[in-house]
Write a structure and sequence with these properties.
The complex is a heterodimer of chains A (89) and B (223). Chain A has 89 residues and is mainly alpha-helical. In chain A, 88% of the residues lie in helices and 0% in strands. Chain A contains 3 helices and no strands. In chain A, α1 packs antiparallel against α2. In chain A, 7% of the residues are buried. In chain B, α2 packs across α3 and α2 packs across α7. Chain B contains 7 helices and no strands. Chain B has one domain. The chains are: A mainly alpha (89), B mainly alpha (223).
Chain lengths: 89, 223
């Protein structure tokens, strides 16, 4: 039972932790990109392209965590089976 | 949620290849030196911007890699956008297509590095600067090199597969909001976002491939 508790906690908390750190990193990327554009509006096109690439690379780390979520989620037990075990046990 | 069969995704990718090939053949029919038809101007615009994009990253040696990077971009973009057409599934939403593309990119940039700078300098580039640190740096560099196609494939696969999954789940809620009477297409904002993601992922894949080629081709001057 402890195994399933730990599994459920990992499935529940793994992805939001990744999203939290990615959101902070992407926020910093976007804010420095905006500062750069505000300083030199003529470089706006290149800064915007570089910012999009940076955001996509940070996002890919969250996608790894999402894949882990999909892989672990199928290993979670069914609710009815667990309730039957709890009632029967 | 069952995985799509790789052969179904392969069939869709062959469909994309046939469609792109037909478009390419039809648009290069009667080429003129000063283009007066709109079709040729449009295709020239696309080719010119792809050439600027590739040569901006690789430099003057990028002329011969422009077809590869340009085709990669257009092919991945077309495959991503196929998932939005009702009845079709994006071929890049399965690991088979993305891993094969990443393996091709891996082979191309390694071959580019070996052909441009020779086999021994390429190995020395992997070994790092102080030659006595080679037994330590070589495995680290090799693992880092192997992580590149892995991250390329999983990034593309995860983004497109996640988008499609969200689309399926939201489309299943169409009749749920006002129960069974009014159909609200709840997946519409995600469809718009998916178009943006398709562009960004195709751009990121091809730009990273171009950066890997430029790093491999430049050799030691880049460091």
């Amino acid at each position: 039972m402890n195994y399933f508790v730990a599994l459920a906690l990992a499935v529940g908390f793994g992805l939001p932790l990744a999203v939290l750190s990615a959101a902070m990193a992407q926020g910093r990327t976007a804010s420095t990109a905006l500062e750069g554009i505000a300083r030199q509006p003529e470089a706006a096109g290149r800064i915007q392209t570089a910012m999009i690439i940076g955001l996509a690379l940070i996002e890919s780390l969250v996608i790894y965590a999402l894949l882990m979520f999909f892989l672990l989620q199928v290993k979670l037990p069914e609710t009815e089976a667990v309730l039957k075990i709890i009632r029967g046990g | 949620m069952e995985e799509a069969s790789p052969w179904l995704l392969f069939a869709f990718s062959v469909l994309v290849i046939i469609a792109l090939g037909l478009f390419a053949i039809l648009s290069t029919r009667r080429l003129e030196r000063m283009p007066t038809s709109r079709r040729q101007s449009l295709v020239e615009l696309v080719v010119e911007s792809l050439k600027n994009f590739t040569m901006g990253i690789i430099g003057p040696k990028g002329e011969k890699y422009t077809p590869f990077i340009g085709t990669l971009f257009i092919y991945i973009l077309a495959m991503n956008l196929l998932g939005l057409v009702p009845g079709f599934k994006a071929p890049t939403s399965g690991l088979s297509i993305t891993v094969s593309l990443a393996i091709v990119v891996f082979l191309v940039y390694n071959a580019a590095g070996i052909l441009e700078t020779g086999f021994i300098p390429y190995l020395k580039h992997l070994a790092g600067e102080p030659l006595w640190l080679a037994p330590l740096m070589f495995p680290i560099h090799v693992i880092g090199e192997l992580a590149r196609p892995l991250s390329l494939s999983i990034r593309l696969f995860g983004n497109i597969f996640g988008e499609e999954t969200i689309l399926v789940i939201l489309a299943g809620m169409t009749y749920v909001i006002i129960p069974y009477v009014v159909a609200i297409p709840t997946q519409f904002p995600i469809v718009l976002f998916d178009v943006f993601i398709a562009f960004v992922q195709a751009l990121v894949f091809s730009m990273l491939s171009a950066i890997y080629i430029s790093v491999a081709v430049a050799g030691h001057e880049a460091h």
